[in-house]
Protein backbone atom coordinates (compact mmCIF):
# COMPACT_ATOMS: atom_id res chain seq x y z
CA UNK A 1 0.00 0.00 0.00
CA UNK A 2 2.80 2.44 0.92
CA UNK A 3 4.67 1.55 -2.27
CA UNK A 4 1.53 2.20 -4.28
CA UNK A 5 1.22 5.68 -2.73
CA UNK A 6 4.87 6.43 -3.43
CA UNK A 7 4.35 5.61 -7.11
CA UNK A 8 1.64 8.28 -7.54
CA UNK A 9 2.31 11.65 -9.18
CA UNK A 10 0.78 15.12 -8.88
CA UNK A 11 -2.01 14.15 -11.30
CA UNK A 12 -3.22 11.49 -8.89
CA UNK A 13 -3.06 13.87 -5.93
CA UNK A 14 -5.05 16.51 -7.83
CA UNK A 15 -7.71 13.90 -8.41
CA UNK A 16 -7.62 13.00 -4.71
CA UNK A 17 -8.37 16.62 -3.84
CA UNK A 18 -11.25 16.41 -6.34
CA UNK A 19 -12.61 13.46 -4.34
CA UNK A 20 -12.53 15.58 -1.19
CA UNK A 21 -14.32 18.40 -3.03
CA UNK A 22 -17.01 15.95 -4.16
CA UNK A 23 -17.49 14.69 -0.61
CA UNK A 24 -17.87 18.28 0.61
CA UNK A 25 -20.36 18.85 -2.23
CA UNK A 26 -22.40 15.83 -1.20
CA UNK A 27 -22.54 17.06 2.40
CA UNK A 28 -23.52 20.57 1.28
CA UNK A 29 -26.24 19.15 -0.98
CA UNK A 30 -27.62 17.02 1.87
CA UNK A 31 -27.83 20.11 4.11
CA UNK A 32 -29.35 22.10 1.23
CA UNK A 33 -32.05 19.47 0.63
CA UNK A 34 -32.76 19.31 4.36
CA UNK A 35 -33.43 23.06 4.35
CA UNK A 36 -35.97 22.72 1.55
CA UNK A 37 -33.76 23.33 -1.47
CA UNK A 38 -34.66 22.15 -4.96
CA UNK A 39 -32.55 19.51 -6.66
CA UNK A 40 -32.78 15.99 -7.95
CA UNK A 41 -31.44 13.11 -5.82
CA UNK A 42 -29.33 12.00 -8.79
CA UNK A 43 -26.81 14.68 -7.76
CA UNK A 44 -25.81 12.30 -4.95
CA UNK A 45 -25.41 9.50 -7.48
CA UNK A 46 -23.39 11.62 -9.93
CA UNK A 47 -20.94 12.67 -7.25
CA UNK A 48 -20.71 9.15 -5.80
CA UNK A 49 -20.04 7.61 -9.23
CA UNK A 50 -17.36 10.25 -9.86
CA UNK A 51 -15.73 9.38 -6.54
CA UNK A 52 -15.92 5.65 -7.34
CA UNK A 53 -14.26 6.20 -10.73
CA UNK A 54 -11.39 8.01 -9.08
CA UNK A 55 -11.02 5.41 -6.35
CA UNK A 56 -10.78 2.75 -9.06
CA UNK A 57 -7.80 4.68 -10.45
CA UNK A 58 -5.91 4.00 -7.23
CA UNK A 59 -6.04 0.27 -7.89
CA UNK A 60 -6.13 0.25 -11.69
CA UNK A 61 -4.49 2.73 -14.04
CA UNK A 62 -4.01 0.52 -17.06
CA UNK A 63 -5.29 0.66 -20.60
CA UNK A 64 -8.77 1.88 -19.65
CA UNK A 65 -7.67 4.14 -16.80
CA UNK A 66 -8.26 7.26 -18.88
CA UNK A 67 -11.92 6.28 -19.32
CA UNK A 68 -12.42 6.22 -15.55
CA UNK A 69 -10.71 9.61 -15.26
CA UNK A 70 -12.95 11.12 -17.96
CA UNK A 71 -16.05 9.51 -16.46
CA UNK A 72 -15.28 11.22 -13.13
CA UNK A 73 -15.09 14.61 -14.86
CA UNK A 74 -18.41 13.99 -16.62
CA UNK A 75 -20.09 12.92 -13.37
CA UNK A 76 -18.86 16.02 -11.53
CA UNK A 77 -20.02 18.20 -14.44
CA UNK A 78 -23.48 16.62 -14.26
CA UNK A 79 -23.61 17.18 -10.49
CA UNK A 80 -22.66 20.82 -11.05
CA UNK A 81 -25.17 21.35 -13.86
CA UNK A 82 -28.12 19.77 -12.08
CA UNK A 83 -27.22 21.57 -8.88
CA UNK A 84 -27.32 24.92 -10.68
CA UNK A 85 -30.53 24.08 -12.51
CA UNK A 86 -32.26 23.23 -9.22
CA UNK A 87 -31.06 26.43 -7.56
CA UNK A 88 -31.77 28.93 -10.31
CA UNK A 89 -34.87 30.21 -8.50
CA UNK A 90 -32.92 30.77 -5.29
CA UNK A 91 -30.15 32.58 -7.12
CA UNK A 92 -32.63 34.71 -9.07
CA UNK A 93 -34.47 35.76 -5.93
CA UNK A 94 -31.19 36.54 -4.19
CA UNK A 95 -29.91 38.68 -7.06
CA UNK A 96 -33.22 40.54 -7.57
CA UNK A 97 -33.86 40.95 -3.86
CA UNK A 98 -37.46 39.74 -4.10
CA UNK A 99 -39.09 36.39 -3.43
CA UNK A 100 -40.79 34.96 -6.51
CA UNK A 101 -39.19 31.64 -7.50
CA UNK A 102 -37.39 30.11 -4.55
CA UNK A 103 -35.67 30.62 -1.24
CA UNK A 104 -33.17 33.50 -1.47
CA UNK A 105 -31.54 32.45 1.81
CA UNK A 106 -30.45 29.20 0.14
CA UNK A 107 -28.65 30.98 -2.70
CA UNK A 108 -25.43 31.05 -0.67
CA UNK A 109 -25.54 27.25 -0.51
CA UNK A 110 -26.10 27.13 -4.27
CA UNK A 111 -23.03 29.30 -4.77
CA UNK A 112 -20.98 27.14 -2.40
CA UNK A 113 -22.04 23.89 -4.09
CA UNK A 114 -21.28 25.37 -7.52
CA UNK A 115 -17.80 26.36 -6.39
CA UNK A 116 -17.08 23.00 -4.74
CA UNK A 117 -18.37 20.86 -7.63
CA UNK A 118 -16.64 23.21 -10.09
CA UNK A 119 -13.31 22.83 -8.30
CA UNK A 120 -13.73 19.06 -8.26
CA UNK A 121 -14.54 19.02 -11.96
CA UNK A 122 -11.58 21.24 -12.89
CA UNK A 123 -9.09 19.31 -10.77
CA UNK A 124 -10.31 16.05 -12.28
CA UNK A 125 -10.05 17.48 -15.78
CA UNK A 126 -6.48 18.66 -15.17
CA UNK A 127 -5.65 15.25 -13.71
CA UNK A 128 -6.85 13.61 -16.93
CA UNK A 129 -4.03 15.28 -18.85
CA UNK A 130 -1.32 14.30 -16.39
CA UNK A 131 0.32 11.01 -15.53
CA UNK A 132 -1.17 9.56 -12.38
CA UNK A 133 1.61 7.05 -11.80
CA UNK A 134 5.42 7.31 -12.05
CA UNK A 135 7.01 5.59 -15.03
CA UNK A 136 8.09 2.05 -14.32
CA UNK A 137 6.02 1.76 -11.15
Q: Roughly how many Å is the radius of gyration?
A: 17 Å
Shape annotation: elongated
Q: Tell me the helix content.
A: over 70%
Give the termini distance in whole angstroms.
13 Å
Q: Provide the succession of SSEs.
A: HHHHHH
Taking pLDDT < 50 over at least 5 consecutive residues as the criterion, the unreliable ranges are: none
Q: How many strand segments?
A: 0
What does the main sheet amount to? Answer: none
How would you describe the overall organization of this protein?
The chain is mainly α. 74% of the residues lie in helices and 0% in strands. It contains six helices and no strands. Helix 2 packs antiparallel against helix 3, helix 3 packs antiparallel against helix 4 and helix 5 packs across helix 6. The relative contact order is 0.21. The model has no long low-confidence stretch (mean pLDDT 88).
Compact description:
The chain has six helices and no strands. 74% of the residues lie in helices and 0% in strands. Helix 4 (65-86) runs antiparallel to helix 6 and helix 5 packs across helix 6 (107-128).
Descriptive keywords:
0% strand; mainly alpha; 137 residues
Can you lay out the helices and strands and say which pair or pack?
Blueprint: H1 2-6, H2 10-34, H3 42-59, H4 65-86, H5 88-96, H6 107-128
